[in-house]
Amino acid sequence: RFLTGQFRIGGMTCAACVNSVEGVLRKVPGVKRAVVALATSLAEVEYDPSIISKDEIVVAVEDAGFEASFLQ
Ligand code: 9UX
């Protein structure tokens, strides 16, 4: 049973940032799918809430040097 969360990502200034945020997210245990859009600063993350919480996803992005907040 997966959930899909939308996150606002801050601090992405070039296309390589998108790749690095996606790479971080896809390596997080419990994340099944992550798509990041530079133009909108949005990330859509499909995750297993029995393995990881939305707050832990936020922390993983922030540990990589970006800002993140859960939208819905
Ligand atoms: Mo671009 Mo982002 O030169 O972390 S990769 S600004």
Q: How would you characterize the overall build of this protein?
A:
- This protein has two helices and four strands, in the order βαββαβ.
- It has helices at residues 15-27, 54-63; strands spanning 3-10, 31-37, 42-47, 67-70.
- With 72 residues, the chain is an alpha+beta fold.
- The chain has a single domain (3-70), classed as Alpha-Beta Plaits.
- Strand 2 and strand 3 form a beta hairpin.
- Dioxo(di-mu-sulfide)dimolybdenum is lined by residues 13-14, 16-17, 20.
In the CATH hierarchy, the architecture is: 2-Layer Sandwich
- Count every helix, treating DSSP H or I runs of 4 or more residues as helices: 2
Cofactors, ions, other ligands:
dioxo(di-mu-sulfide)dimolybdenum
Which stretches of 5+ consecutive residues score pLDDT under 50? none
Strand content: 25-35%
What can be said about this structure in brief?
The protein is built from two helices and four strands; from the N terminus they run E-H-E-E-H-E. With 72 residues, the protein is of the alpha+beta class. It binds dioxo(di-mu-sulfide)dimolybdenum.
List the helices and strands and how they pair.
Elements: E1 3-10, H1 15-27, E2 31-37, E3 42-47, H2 54-63, E4 67-70
Antiparallel strand pairs: 1-3, 1-4, 2-3
Bound molecules: dioxo(di-mu-sulfide)dimolybdenum.
The site of dioxo(di-mu-sulfide)dimolybdenum has 5 residues, from helix 1.
List keywords for this structure.
P-type Cu(+) transporter, 72 residues, alpha+beta, Alpha-Beta Plaits, four-stranded antiparallel β-sheet
